[in-house]
Specification:
Blueprint: E1 3-5, H1 8-21, H2 29-38, E2 47-49, E3 59-67, H3 78-91, E4 96-101, H4 113-119, E5 123-124, E6 151-157, E7 164-170, H5 172-185, E8 189-198, H6 199-205, H7 210-223, H8 228-237, E9 241-256, E10 259-266, E11 270-275, E12 277-283, E13 286-290, E14 294-299, E15 305-306, E16 316-322, H9 336-340, H10 343-346
Parallel strand pairs: 2-5, 3-4
Antiparallel strand pairs: 1-2, 3-8, 6-7, 6-8, 9-10, 9-16, 10-11, 11-12, 12-13, 14-15, 14-16
Domain S-Me-THD-like C-terminal: 175-326
Protein name: OsrF
Pfam families: S-Me-THD_C, S-Me-THD_N
Length: 351
């Protein structure tokens, strides 16, 4: 099926499946569920389409949330989400034929569903990346390698004295950096519509079928028995493995430049590092998995996925890893220049 009218149940599945594929980032489940509900309040419903429904020279735009998941003062309402798309339609000199999300995550898989329902634009079953990632460039389908590409990014967020909205038109790196800085001023996060690009380019660089994958994974997760059996079923489906279950003995989180950066120790044996998303996992100093492999944490007792920002000392958690070859990934996840940016933040080798 190339077109599908989305339902509330699809949204719920997408939130839970997206959370797992978020790898520690991509937003919180409760935020995703709240945002999903908003997409179905009006009479219209968002529609999911495949890339084959559009012509190669049709333009689509990416919708995203930019900021630190743990930010306490972040605020984005429905009007602001829709406003970013409307502003992009005015700024871009080509008609926008569909919206795509930047990544999979509890909140980010359904990026654009509300905007799609409000504007009549469909959602493309092709996120910029099939897993969550920390930087804007990682969610830009290697447009950073297109020397003459000019990025258009419209943004809105915050409330009261912190409310911001506007447009940045610049090189990809400059635009991404500017929007990241604005997110800090807005209280920690902004909604963004960015980087109009042709479908032909999307086909070559995006995670085709990534939204369907998240919905399928979410349905499987929610149908499984609670607890460790649920975690095992998810891990088996994604052809990964459980590497450790234990008690969190140390947790640190620092907000730096609009990112969550930190470390988790489990039973004093296992160490996780994260930069929004989990970047590395080591047991007794031996590297077991490295981003963009998927590393994810779960509450051992309930089987619920836990993003990096909600880990606490004393929690009983289970850590899983999924090899990158089993994920739907953007070409950015194989761009060593983009991956090397991670290393100074976590003080670990990635490339």
């Amino acid at each position: 099926m190339t077109r599908k009218l989305l339902t509330r149940n699809d949204a719920k599945n997408a939130v839970y499946g997206g959370c797992i594929l978020g790898g520690g980032g991509g937003g919180w489940i409760h935020d995703g569920l709240e945002k999903a509900e908003l997409a179905f309040l009006e009479n219209s419903r968002p529609e999911l389409i495949t890339v084959d429904e559009l012509k190669d020279d049709d333009y689509v735009a990416c919708v995203s949330l930019v900021g630190a998941p743990s930010a306490k003062e972040m605020y984005i309402n429905s009007k602001q989400l829709i406003e970013t798309v409307e502003r992009m339609q005015m700024e871009c000199n080509k008609p926008i034929k569909a919206l795509m999300t930047n990544e999979n995550g509890a909140s980010t898989t359904i990026n654009g569903w509300l905007q799609a329902a409000a504007t009549g634009l469909p959602i493309l079953d092709a996120p910029s990346n099939g897993r969550a990632h920390p930087t804007g460039s990682m969610g830009s389908m290697n447009l950073s390698e297109v020397s003459d590409y000019v990025s258009i990014q419209t943004f809105a967020g915050g409330k009261g004295a912190k409310e911001v909205k506007g447009t940045v038109i610049a090189s990809l790196d400059a635009a991404a950096s500017a929007v990241r800085s604005v997110s800090v001023q807005a209280g920690g996060m902004v909604a963004v519509c960015r980087n109009p690009v042709q479908i032909k380019y999307v086909k070559e660089h995006a995670a085709i079928g990534g939204i369907s994958q998240a919905m399928e994974l979410g349905e499987l997760f929610l149908s499984a028995p609670k607890g460790l059996k649920r975690i095992k079923q998810v891990t088996s489906h994604l052809k990964g493995r459980i590497i450790h279950s234990g008690i969190v003995t140390y947790f640190s989180l620092n907000k730096t430049g609009g990112f969550d950066i930190g470390t988790v120790h489990v039973d004093h044996d296992l160490e996780l590092t994260f930069w929004n998303e989990y970047m590395t996992v080591e047991i007794l100093g031996y590297r077991r998995s490295t981003f963009p492999d998927l590393i994810m944490t779960f509450d051992t007792n309930t089987g619920m996925p836990l993003v990096s920002a909600e880990i606490q000392d004393g929690m009983e958690i289970t850590v899983i890893t999924i090899p990158k070859k089993n994920l739907k990934l953007s070409t950015t996840m194989f761009n060593e220049k983009l991956l090397k940016v991670i290393e100074p933040y976590i003080q670990k080798k990635i490339v």
